[in-house]
Design brief:
Jelly Rolls, three-stranded antiparallel β-sheet, globular, 37% strand, six-stranded antiparallel β-sheet, 15% helix, mainly beta
Length: 158
């Protein structure tokens, strides 16, 4: 049974996890919300592609809110630009990824409901990205991490 949050405060999970300019700052994790919601800022430098493969998740929705810059999200093969003041809900099971195709850094607020993913996922993934030393990350290791955290890697595009 979930335990009530007894000492609520602003940004209880305030942690930044980063690699090569890409950064995730957790504002709220499942531990702080009885598992109902996780929220994090996603910062993506200009002209950066997502190093992880496209993926889906069957156990939660991911809602993206544009704060600064523009990210191009590809959801089930359809490209959707999300900029400041715009929101996109990625439903369970939808294959998706993002890229910053612009010349300006982007910042998005990402909300996961329920909070089925947390900081540990990003720590593990960024460790694999860093180990690649600028080359492509080990796809098998990435896929293993993704599956352990409830994400399903999409088949590689040919």
């Amino acid at each position: 049974m979930p335990q009530p949050v007894t000492d609520p405060h602003v940004n209880p999970s305030d942690e930044t996890i980063a690699t090569k300019g890409l950064a995730v700052r957790f504002l709220l994790a499942g531990d702080n919300s009885n598992g109902s919601i996780a929220a994090f800022e996603l910062m993506v430098p200009a002209a950066q592609r997502l190093p992880a493969p496209a993926h889906s998740h069957d156990h939660y929705e991911e809602t993206i809110y544009g704060v600064d810059g523009v990210l191009t999200w590809t959801v089930n093969g359809k490209q959707i630009d999300v900029g400041p003041g715009q929101a996109l809900c990625i439903p369970r099971g939808a294959v998706h990824r993002f890229d910053n195709n612009g010349s300006k850094d982007a910042k998005m607020l990402c909300v996961i409901t329920p909070a089925a993913i947390g900081p540990e996922y990003f720590r593990e993934v960024f460790e694999v990205v860093n180990a690649a030393a600028g080359g492509p990350p080990d796809r098998a290791r990435m896929a293993d991490i993704m599956r352990r955290h409830g994400l399903t890697p999409a088949a590689p595009q040919t």
